[in-house]
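This entry is passed on directly below:
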Amino acid sequence: MPWETFEHQADVGLLIDAPDGASLFAEAGLALLSLLCDPRDVRERERYGVSVTAGDAGELLVAWLNELLFVFEGQGLVWRRIEIGAWSPAACRGTLHGERADRERHALAGGVKAATYHRLSVTRNAGGWHARVILDV
């Protein structure tokens, strides 16, 4: 699995590894969803476009995850797959493949309020990209 969670006081953190920036953001979105419901229960019935910009890759990751939380909470959409159409350290545009949340079928957990800047890091190394982000729960 290209990501894992870790406990941080009353919050939860994500550690994500990927070969490139686009994959890092796709995996981060899937990791977030796994805290909200079981992605295996989601069917790819709809597509929803998401686009964010920021000053650097760290800020971009926080903006991306918070936008996905808005899609989950505000639009009632869950996703099984994320396709990144364009990525740079300052902008990300992607498509979520999923469906409207169904409380009976998706066993929604909720509880994630926001991605935070606390101890945030997004770095590029010889093996690809690595991110550490803490989510306020």
